[in-house]
Amino acid sequence: MSLRNYVIRRLLFSIPLFLGISIILFALMINAPADYVDVLRLTNPTMSPEEAANIRHNLGLDREPMEQYILWLLGRNSEVGDWGNFFEEFANFVIFIPFRFIQDTGVLDFGVPDSNFEPGFIFGNMGRSFTGSSINSIIGALAWETIKLQLASLLMSLMIGIPLGIFSARKPYSRLDNLGTTLALFGVSMPVFWTGIMFILLFSDYKIFFGIRFPALGSTSYTLTGNEGAIELLVDELAHMILPTIVLGLAGTALVLRLTRSSMLEVLRQDYILTARSKGLPERLVIYKHALRNALLPVVTVVGLSIGFLLAGAALTETVFSWPGLGREAVARINLRDYNFMMGVNMLIAIMVIVSNLVTDITYAFLDPRIRY
Amino acid sequence: MSKEGKIVIDDERLEAFEKEKEKRRRAGRIMIFWRRFRRHRMGVFGLFIIIFVTFVGVFAPFLAGPGRLVPFGPRESNVQARFTPPFSYESAKDTAASQEASTLEKTVAAFYANYKLNFINGMSTTALPHYLQLSKIDSIVDETTEEELWSSSLDPADYLNANGSLRLPTSFNGSALIDYRTGGKIAFQINPSKNKLTFVSIFLAVRVDSPESVWGGKFKVYLYEAESDLNSANYLASSSVQSYLVSTGPSISLRLIDFRFSVAGLQITTGSTYTVVLDTEIMDIEFPGINQYVVTRSGPAEMDPLRTTNQNWNALDGWNDQDTATYEGWMAYVAVFYVTNKFHVFGTDALGRDILAATIWGATSSLTVAFLAQGITTLIGIIVGTIAGYYGGFWDNVLMRLTDIILAIPFFFLLLIAITLWEQISLYFMAIIIGVLGWAGIARVVRAQFLSLRELEYTEAARALGVSNVTIMFKHLLPNALAPVIVQTTLGTATVILIEAGLSFLGFGDPLAVSWGTAIQWGMTGNTLRFAPWVATIPGLAIFVVVLGFNLMGDALRDALDPRLKN
User: Fold this and answer.
1) Complex ipTM
2) Do A221 and A111 share a structural domain?
3) Sheet of B175-179, strand order
């Protein structure tokens, strides 16, 4: 099978996967005993039952579960919040897309009427959260904060974990190896939110690092006046990233170190390494050219997975550091029972996971010529 | 061969050798495995940790909460027991330390002094924030004597005008009394010298005469312009807080309550006077032994960077080193935590809940969830993996796609969503949810093992003999596939403990159980992290140690069960 066919087959298989994920998530949420309006009534006990029913109706929560799911997936008439004359609206919407787009830019006026059709998830519109704002815009606003934190910690874990892992495997049971593996074990065992709290305490409150107070709240200072220069803003942003990145990166570093070490040890025992050594190749070449490429396969898997789950962020770390990211937002939205938002975020992540798994598998073929598709 | 290296084999040696050989031949699987396992000293250490913590968890009712041995009674009745220190206040009464403690708390001023002493003794002075230095604390010590403070009853004429509107006390010295049964209003004036005002902190002192009691109230704070009519609805901003207090002995308990105003659209003028009205409404619960409580205030104070870590910061202005000094609010300096003493070995949190007791009870909660959830996970994983791996074809396809679906959703989000399926979360629901959703990894491992095992000759032979599929799967193949499952289960238990702690930390745990995650959350509320770092530190250390134990044991098991994997 050629690579192209393999990719096409995988993508086709991911369609039922996608439907399955959305159905399971939807079924979980629709069966919850309390919905968004119940939470609203908790905060506002004076709300009358009629009012509550009205809000439910406007949000479409009083419909049959199956109907809600299809409306979420395909789209709805935004005026009646219903199927309306779905096919007609849908056809209008699709046919006039380019015209409406040009008309919106104000270059030409085609006289295309405004469409009431609100596209569903399959058109890339995650809909509106129950609190009223568009989920696409919420994610757009928060995604970068999450991504930069995740990427920085991933980078840190790779840059520290891989070299240390290689060194540990080259001299197993040496003093540095013992130190590294012990620290890695500690890193895996510490609850990440607790590590965060301890870091805040030590580096932000007690200022144990040369008396420097590391910022521990949010992603920027709230005291910014708006008159700062670009460099000042950048420094401020980077300073806020230090503590959460290190806390997140510690766990990742520990994982990468353990993975690299064990797979490197495995590879170094192989016959072809013996061959390479007996050929008289310098040790540096044996390690970095022959062994490392094969030893990094499990690390590639881990990196692929973390890229897939990138947007999920780290709910706990983000909460501890008040980081305005998607993970913290999702926790807040769960408390509100804002299920539209959770559907949107989770489906987006699921798609990213499916794609990143595919990319990881393809990368395998490049790294390991023995693998064929 | 040199003579020294030669081994002389006499009958005695030969006999001993044969005996050892026979013993080894007869040793069962488990014995052989144990021999291999105990070579890993760290693994044995991990096993020791696990056994110890399990012991603590099982016997928690006897270890924490003296005089209240209700091992497995109704959970509600255990709630209070979980908050009491493991050492009885009564039984220690004749000791010098307890006498000192009870006499020292007799007057408010003495209480402050006592507290201060404890606080300074409890941690190194260098670690103290500068504004907790002695002089600062002294400056707010109320000189009111006990008699004055407690015996005066509150006369409505003291704070109400003839027309019923609130009157400001002309000399508000930082304390006032409100009847605990009816609630009431108290007003005082503040002068913001900076243009930021987002919070007012009220410092409540409750005197408790009975050994244990729960006390609660609903507090509303209104901010008025100085000259406005305090009874009308023309307040600038308002904020309300519900608060309760668990007291564990005769003492004066202190509680700091922060009120945060929304400042959107609020113009606070520098230098003007504003009126803050505290309106209390007492919760309808029994208050044995509480006479009255006193509301005191002090200020101004610095903005505390840690106090709102968990709060929504968007409405607040932030802090940094320079900004700290310019921020102004009204808060008390004195923290309300007991540090290490005879009764509270690990100190308490702001509500007087003993941290050692919480840590002991946390072992119960965490291990209940961990063992139950991991048991369910392993069971489902083995069944799913076995069926998928042995039968292959259609069932393999269906089950593995289901696995893919579960693995494509972020596990933590999936748990958060599933947990909302219950209105009242309990430890068992948590365990079931984590267990039912977490089997995907183990199923994959088992399936991979079965894929290779089912092609082996002895499987063919069993099939040819007409052994049923179920027998082949679970009797012939499964024992051979168990090694990686055991390792996965051990490491998975560690993960479940971390997940449970994380969920409890975010407030999705069992509200009636004390979990390590919940205790860390106590350490993050309000000022606690700043004033009482031990509240968050001790339970976190407990998690760390237990998870480390499981990880050590998992690594050792991996080496012992599968020598090929040994590094």
Assistant:
1) 0.89
2) no
3) B175-179, B290-296, B199-208, B251-260
